[in-house]
Automatic annotation (TrEMBL):
This is Cytochrome b. Its cofactor is heme b. Component of the ubiquinol-cytochrome c reductase complex (complex III or cytochrome b-c1 complex), which is a respiratory chain that generates an electrochemical potential coupled to ATP synthesis. Its main location: membrane. It comes from Hyphobacterium lacteum. InterPro entries: Cyt_b/b6_C (IPR005798), Cyt_b/b6_C_sf (IPR036150), Cyt_b/b6_N (IPR005797), Cytb/b6-like_sf (IPR027387), Cytochrome_b (IPR030689), Cytochrome_b_C_euk/bac (IPR048260), Cytochrome_b_N_euk/bac (IPR048259), Di-haem_cyt_TM (IPR016174). It is found in: Membrane. Binds 2 heme groups non-covalently. SUPFAM superfamilies: a domain/subunit of cytochrome bc1 complex (Ubiquinol-cytochrome c reductase), Transmembrane di-heme cytochromes. Residues 13-224 form the Cytochrome b/b6 N-terminal region profile domain. It holds the Pfam family Cytochrome_B.
Amino acid sequence: MSHQSTYEPKTGIEKWLDARLPIVRLGWDSFVDFPTPRNLNYWYTFGGILAVFLVIQILTGVVLAMHYVPHIDYAFDSVERIRRDVNYGWLIQAMHANGASFFFVAVYLHMFRGLYYGSYKAPREMLWIIGVVIYLLMMAAAFMGYVLPWGQMSYWGAMVITNLVGALPVVGEGIREWLWGGFSVGNATLNRFFSLHYLIPFLIAGLVILHIWALHVPGNNNPTGVEVKGKGDTLPFHPYYTVKDGFAIVAFLMIFAAFVFYLPNALGHADNFIEANPLATPAHIVPEWYFLPFYAILRAVTFDIGPISAKLGGVLAMFGAIGVLFVLPWLDGSKVKSMRYRPVAKWFFLIFVIACFGLGWCGAELPDNQVLGTPLQFVTLSQILTAYYFAYFLVILPVLGFIEKPKERPASIEASVLGDQPAAAQ
């Protein structure tokens, strides 16, 4: 959404710089005077929250890297030394470890908001696709970071996941051996994961810049899904949304601080405070909470599908659960973006959210355990929820695009705010 620049350099230095490198003008046009839909609610503040937590993760990660020793004989002890002996190491390590979880809380809320308000639809397909790439890199960085403390869950989590990658046809064995740096998880693996874990956040930072660029071309989506039609539909980003985002960021940081100072280990697994032992397998190997839905999808495939083994089928389903997000803009054929005006789609979306939480619950439980004392096993529940997960994207949204009759939408964003809401042209 291009707009005329209102930046006027006042001092001689500003004029000199603006004529040679207009970076101040870029910042002004992007974060101060950028026209933003006037009806954005607090669900739209998670982009700013994610930016803050990316900075927190990079800064604390750089400091931790100065003291961490990526060697299987010293990694576990070096993490304990950071907590006990490094000045404010206990704080920096707790911020980094809990920051990963809060990063994923914010990104999941950010993605659910995008799904509900149709932020993946034209003309914002590239914005959505770049966001999914960022999400994939976040998952890779988080997985590799979880291995670095070299506790029991770190080691066995790396063993399980890298072995699953080996199930991929043709390329699987090569990728697994490259990740291992040999023939099993060991010192070379830890070194590779440390290097990649350090590198990926900077790649994410670069993609975030692309993400913001892709956002500023068509402009923000909004809760109505109606595009900007006039100046009355927008407000300058500053001070209206800087204040709103700032309040949400402070509120989120207060919850984060409560975990850092009072519950620093609440989101971790107890077995990871035991040093890695290749000869002692934990009773129940589970990933971090933010991977649990995909872990449940992986375990839901317990049967061969023609020539595809159950193991390979589970891996393909797990990767497919993320891959389907890339083509989502072309699966949903409805011309109405926001589910505020799609009464049937709204209910299917609510069931989808419940299914995602249910998959997370299933991923944390043993597959053969019974659900709340009923005859239903968690593996069966996982299969039901996995089927709905894929059906939502591949069947429900495409079909609803043809058969659903949406409600009347407001004629403009300004009309929706002022309460005068005649129907928009379809």
